[in-house]
Design a protein that fits this description.
One of its GO terms (cellular component) is mitochondrion. This protein has 321 residues and is an alpha/beta fold. It has 14 helices and nine strands. It folds into two domains: 177 residues, 3-Layer(aba) Sandwich (Rossmann fold), CATH 3.40.50.720; 133 residues, Orthogonal Bundle (N-(1-d-carboxylethyl)-l-norvaline Dehydrogenase, domain 2). It is globular, with a radius of gyration of 20 Å. The chain binds nicotinamide-adenine-dinucleotide (NAD).
């Protein structure tokens, strides 16, 4: 891929995704980076500056001005509106270029992404596509993310779709790319997936806690569930009980991961989507109450969401660290 890249949001996910782009893009082209937390940009330059030019700029406008592809992965819908639609510093304030491609990897509601996409297109700023991701920080680091894409399958008659597929393949595995048809549809699929992953994580934490307090050894209980009908991806890859599955956040100080505070956001997105479609979101409504309490608990703040286990079991730090 020729052309400069722009990257906005160098957090837990964005940093390794941007790293894959920098490693795979043309070494003579520049990557423009912006994060409201400047030290993340400085760390990015320190760690990857040897691979090719990276420039830290002071606004999304400056990123956009210089890039033919701009990737954003920031926490919330409010952040996304600011990134793209701020009249002074946002993408919309940059020089117009209808050929430019914006990829929205943040997990937000589908309506916001439709508003942002339609506004940017009308303004002639470029094409904006929702491309939310699945696979977590390990998938981002390995370049094996799954993408849920708010666009039709790539075709020769749609050159932008070819560029889109090429850029996504720099961060993910094409066999896990799902073209969902239209703007906002990638996020609609993502919200359903996260409805399940968030509620399942809490169910795993509660089931493990109940079994352990009933006197079953934690490793035995995990083996039972892993080989029985309760088995799930969350149980195997985000097991909330420390010391059961070695590679997961709970066995590594609840290292991120996916922040406790963000469990509220994704569960709420599912609740809102349920109400909007006439489906009563019973599971998510129950789960969000616990996630809200965990997000205020010092044992869980800024740790991986699986630390909800420490909240529900009232485990003291000295008992698991
Ligand atoms: P994070 O908090 O680690 O990173 C977000 C980054 O965005 C931070 O560096 C922050 O400083 C920056 N930021 C915030 N507002 C900004 C703005 N207005 N302009 C520029 N930068 C801004 O979060 P994360 O875990 O990387 O998640 C980011 C998004 O990806 C969220 O929407 C999340 O739901 C989604 N997501 C996360 C995971 C995961 O496992 N962490 C997986 C899939 C999707």
């Amino acid at each position: 891929m020729e052309g400069n890249f722009g990257f906005i949001g160098l957090g837990a996910m964005g940093f390794p995704m941007a790293e894959n782009i920098r490693r795979k893009m043309s070494s003579s082209k520049t990557m423009y980076v912006y994060d409201v937390y400047r030290p993340s940009c400085e760390r990015f330059v320190n760690e990857l500056g040897g691979i090719g030019p990276i420039e830290i700029v002071g606004s999304v406008k400056d990123v956009t001005e210089n890039s033919s592809v701009v990737i954003s992965i920031v926490p919330s819908a409010e952040d996304v509106r600011k990134v793209f639609l701020d009249g002074k510093e946002g993408a919309i304030a940059a020089r117009k270029d209808a050929e430019r491609l914006f990829l929205e990897c943040s997990t937000i509601d589908a309506q916001t992404t439709r508003d942002v996409g339609e506004t940017l297109t009308k303004a002639g700023s470029g094409s904006y596509i929702d491309t939310p991701v699945s696979g977590g920080v390990p998938g981002a680091a390995a370049g094996t993310l799954s993408f849920l894409i708010g666009h039709t399958d790539p075709t020769d008659s749609d050159p932008m779709s070819k560029t889109l597929a090429t850029v996504l393949a720099m961060m993910g595995e094409p066999k896990k790319f799902f073209y969902c048809g239209k703007l906002g549809a990638g996020l609609a699929a993502k919200i359903s997936n996260n409805y399940l992953s968030c509620t399942t994580l809490l169910a795993v934490a509660e089931a493990m806690a109940i079994g352990i307090r009933s006197g079953i050894d934690k490793d035995l209980l995990y083996r039972v569930i892993h080989n029985s009908t309760g088995q799930s991806w969350m149980c195997d890859n985000v097991m909330p009980v420390p010391g059961v599955v070695p590679h997961v956040p709970s066995s590594n100080g609840y290292k991120l991961g996916f922040k406790s505070q963000m469990m509220i956001k994704d569960t709420t997105l599912g609740i809102d989507a349920g109400h909007a479609t006439g489906i009563r979101p019973v599971m998510a409504e129950a789960a969000v109450e616990t996630f809200k309490k965990a997000a205020e608990d010092p044992r869980c703040i800024d740790r991986d969401g699986s630390s909800v286990y420490l909240y529900i079991t009232d485990t003291k730090d000295e008992d698991w660290k």
